[in-house]
Sequence to fold (1072 residues):
Amino acid sequence: MNAYVGTSTSRVDGRAKVTGAAKYAGEFAADGLLHGFVVEATIARGRIARLDTSEALKVKGVVDVLTHARRPPLADKDEAWKDEVAPEKGSPFRPLYDDRIKFNGQPIALVVAEDWETAKFAATRVRVEYEQEAFATDLESERDKAEKVDQPHKPRGDAAAALTRAAVRHEADYVLPSEHHNPMELFATTAVWDGSGGLTVYDKTQGVQNVQKFLCSVFGKKPDDIRVISPYVGGAFGSGLRPQHQVVLATLAALALKRSVRVVLTRQQMYGLGYRPMTIERVALGAKPDGTLDAIKHEAIAVTSRYEDFSRNDTGWAEQLYKSPNSNFSHKLVDLDVSTPCDMRAPGAATGVCALECAMDELAVALKLDPVELRLRCYSDRDQSEDLPYTSKQLRECYARGAEAFGWSRRNPAPRSMRDGKELVGWGMATGVWEALQMPVAVRIVLTANGHAEVSCAASDIGTGTYTIVAQVAADALGLPIENISVRLADSTLPQAPVEGGSWMAASSAHAVLGAAEEIRRELARLAKAMSGSPLADLDAANATLTDGMIASSEGRGAAVSIADVMRHSKLERIEKEKLNQFAEDKSHARNTHSAVFAEVKIDEELGIIRVTRIVNAVAAGRILNTKTGRSQIMGGVVWGIGMALHEETVMDHRFGRIMNANIAEYHIPVNADVHDIDVIFVDEPDDRINRLGIKGLGEIGIVGVPAAIANAVYHATGKRIRRFPITLDKLLE
Amino acid sequence: MNNFQYSRASDVADAIRLLAADPGAKLIAGGTNLIDLMKENVERPSRLIDISRLPLRDIEETADGGLRIGALVPNSDLAYHPLIEQRYPLLASAILAGASAQLRNMASVGGNLMQRTRCPYFYDTTTPCNKRSPGAGCSAMDGLNRNHAILGTSTSCIATNPSDMSVALAALGALVHIARPSGQRTIALTDFHRLPEDKPHLDTNLGSGEIITAIELPPHGFARNYSYLKIRDRLSYAFALVSVAAALELEGNAIGEARLALGGVAHKPWRSLEAEAALRGQAATPDHFGRAADLLLQGATARSHNGFKIDLARRAIVRTLMQAASATPQSQAHKKIA
Ligand SMILES: Cc1cc2nc3c(=O)[nH]c(=O)nc-3n(C[C@H](O)[C@H](O)[C@H](O)COP(=O)(O)OP(=O)(O)OC[C@H]3O[C@@H](n4cnc5c(N)ncnc54)[C@H](O)[C@@H]3O)c2cc1C
Ligand code: SF4
Fold:
């Protein structure tokens, strides 16, 4: 029964969020709560020569100042500091571990006081002297030091030779700056001391169990000693995948002082966390005169820290999209004196596909082909890296539906040919692609005789709508109204879930709910059969259905018994079932989501002002569980894509190795005035191979392709190709 | 943030007394700039003197037909005041081009005049900045200076004044009324802010112990032919790269009086009497506007990243004058450029 799945059900947590009833990590209270304020390094590399906390300690209300020289023990092996999401290679950053400074903005002390303002004030009284060392933070000047990392995409054919002989060639560098996530909610942790060594840690995170295991290993605690809870997350976008400094510091202080401690980072301090790494993307395409590709080369050079190799797949995406007998992909890293980058919405794809799709546009111009037509001529029905078919791929349909909704056929291909009054009009498009991943997740359902069910799982809802889709799937599977479903998430004591990321949580949690509901249904069927004089005496559990609070046979012989009656007869107040859902391993098919993005810009050329007046994003992502929250996901991605194209950039002064726009007045993201019409189209994509419900996930696909579509529209409007993002007006005026 | 004392002034004389008694004291009105700077440890006042409840919130007509605006009138009240909307729409427009609705509700006229530069090095106490610590050096000179000044700079500072309101006030010929221990004084808005020279730590010519009590607008409001155009890195809620306030008196197509001021390009709103004189008596054509722009931009120099602002300013001046001449002023609500 699908009373809820596939509908536009409103968020079940919406009311709690808008009324303030929803509590975030920094809002939990505790008796005698102390407040920590982080002191950060102001150099990029070196060591702490002297750290004088005496003045800070004299401030009334200050309880302690923790430093590398004054703290409880911390694990000394890298393995202990490697969380679920840590890069394979490297030695994770350890806050307050030793006197080494690895990046500007590194936490070097935590002032703990009776209130936050006192801690903040006392932090200005901590005196630090450094021994500075030579450092480097500029990717472009260190580009030559790039080193190749292993990537899943093996070379095919001989791309270099094919490029040399190509009838039409395009090769260029695209430069994408570092970006910070800037979620609305500040990173915060409230570590509540239970009086006997145990801690309940309220943390802003995308994975409570990841944080819980990490804290236990870093602090040498037993699993029962630490519980991590994160019921609501005010956006994270990847910044909360790894445990962040503040959770280590709050826990450290609570253990040191045997009191509850809260640490909230300031907006500025959040620029010391992870970020989308700057990349220089070199794309070379070689085509035959008929507009088919013969060669693709894509090399990305990205920033990482000196202590960890963070790398994501920037360069393999052409394998999914465009047929080419010859291809070569490589991803290189440059070690710099900066903090380790981390995942940020569609990591690798937002940047890599941006470069690829700008390059495809340039190739279309060189071939005098319509950009959509070029993509259709190169369309690949198989994932070329493993030469596999897709579980489903409705990208052709995305092009068709998107183009139609946008009115693409009315486009005059000549740059500078379309106008609206004083403004030049540009129409551009790009393709988007992301993975459809799924992970093992366990869910527990407790059904009570009053017809209510509690569904619980350790997964987070980072604002994407997990509470809502879990409730929808459970309501349908149990045949109950959604009001009778309560959902508990993001508590490390609940059934197992991985971090929420990679767009895998919708499919993974939905099928885990199905699995647990299935167990409940079997149990009810067994009980219903066993009732004395049961009308369902010959019910076959496999054919039992739960609908409208009743259990019946799907063979439809009319007889039905209310679930409440079954439980009453069986003298049961509750039925509890927990099930871990594992997806069968299937290497015979590739799994991806796709999109076609169409953008309109209007440009006042004299003044360089760009307005993105329309975006149509046609998305094929399997079955859409909830069209309302799904649409919101895509719209959020599109807005972010506008930011990537025109606004966002973390600006660093490389003389100081310091970020100079670490606040949201100066780090620009789109504001309402920058956002106009956004049309989201979900293209039908039935997929009975990927999983039972045919779900693929929507978290990342919405941003992919958007920056390229806008950049391509800017070219179409002005005839200017801007390959260094963001496209600010000075670049247009150059 | 530093610790500080707090006093609430009971009247203007009390505020002046409190200021004189504590050289580290600062006035606080809306707090939208001062508190930010205190959080960054850039401003470390020993005492905050809260003037927000002083009776300086009136907008009154003056004997000669102008307006006197109390220093504590909130920016939004000023922008939406009927007399301002009708008679000084250039001022209303400039105010609405600035900040956000929430900030404008808090911000006062006096605070707006006194707001400090947004130079990132000024805000970051770990980097050298002459304006913050005289003699420390200027990090912007050879650093990130994309939005720094192109006019009136010195070898010690290339910061800009970020106010939008002040640009319109400069164009309108506003006066600033100041109370001080020895009485009152009045100076032209264009003399209120100063150039950095070798004392970039001084933004204005307001003396220590002095308080802005009001600004005064002369009778002529240029309500027919005016425009305020602000060019920025996103379509709203960003400081100006360049902004232009233009006001014309037209007789047919012939220019009578002309006013022109630039924002975002110098340590003060930039006005040139020469450029305005060159417009007087001329036809309102792009050519004449271009010539005025050249005069206004005379002596403009660029550092490594802000060269684009010179050309951008020229184009923006011409466009704004065109908007003013055709009585199609830039709308601040609709971001399409007229
Ligand atoms: C995110 C952000 C964006 C912004 N964008 C813009 C923008 O686009 N354009 C723009 O123009 N502005 C912008 N602003 C700045 C805003 O206009 C100023 O912060 C505001 O006008 C200051 O007024 P206030 O009353 O809050 O001043 P306060 O913060 O209270 O005071 C500022 C200074 O003025 C002094 N002062 C206050 N009143 C008097 C007085 N009567 N006499 C003498 N000294 C006085 C104070 O001592 C202090 O030094 C922005 C601000 C923020 C935070
Ligand atoms: S431009 Fe002025 S405010 Fe900026 S760093 Fe230089 S001295 Fe300081």
Observations:
- Chain B touches chain A at residues 1-3, 41, 118, 120-121, 124, 126-127, 139, 143-144, 146, 231, 233-238, 241, 308, 311-312, 315-316, 319, 335-337 (CB under 8 Å).
- The longest strand of chain B covers residues 242-251.
- The mean pLDDT of chain B is 97.
